[in-house]
Target: Gliding motility-associated-like protein
Amino acid sequence: MKKIIVSIAAGLLLFGSQSLKAQLSVGSDGLFIQNGTVFSTDGLTLVPAKDWGLNNLKVMMSPAVVIWPRFNSIQRMYRFSKPVTFEGEVALSFQDIELNGNEAKDLVLAHSKVTSTNYKDYTLVQESVSSEKEHYVGQLFTKPIVFADLNAVSMISSSTVMYKDIEANNMITPNGDGVNDVWIVKNILQYPNNELKIFDREGRVVFSKIGYDNTWDGQFNGNPLPEDTYYYILYFDSGKAKKTGFITIVKEQ
Model:
């Protein structure tokens, strides 16, 4: 593993200081990269284990983000105009400003066979090597992989760990004074792939939203709901986990 880290780091030191050029374009004449040769473009470093040929291909680097159940990906996406098959070392560099809430030490590579911003299309490389100091994440692929998109995200261990930091307020006082007027769920913005449903005592849905963002003000179809206690269900990761509880609407005088 030490040998892998050294060769990846060397590639970044040689090429990482180049200014971002937006894209690499390979024409019909093709591009041949000999095995073991360090190849880098816009912070993406590749060291093929076998001779690698490319043609009629564009590689774009953009600040695109993939939305995951807890952490969004870093704000750096490498997008190939068509899927490529690769075997060898892959590493991408990043800047602190691109972390997007992730911890550099926890980053792992994520790759997709198709062009997509849906996290379900991506595979996490759990054994990725990351360096907080040198700002890169990489891995040696000993078997060929196919990818069209490459980025990185923090490792997610389990749903128990993922959602334990969700804390929901149990009361709102929507009187327009700017204090406690909306229902706040602490840390909900870290889980954009959520779905909220709020029910009254009769089990009727009085509010629902995919991607709840701390904006519900106790209304149903534009009308204030009466003072009462309501039941909520917050679903995460397409229903794989959920949090439930009660919200009381208080009409302060």
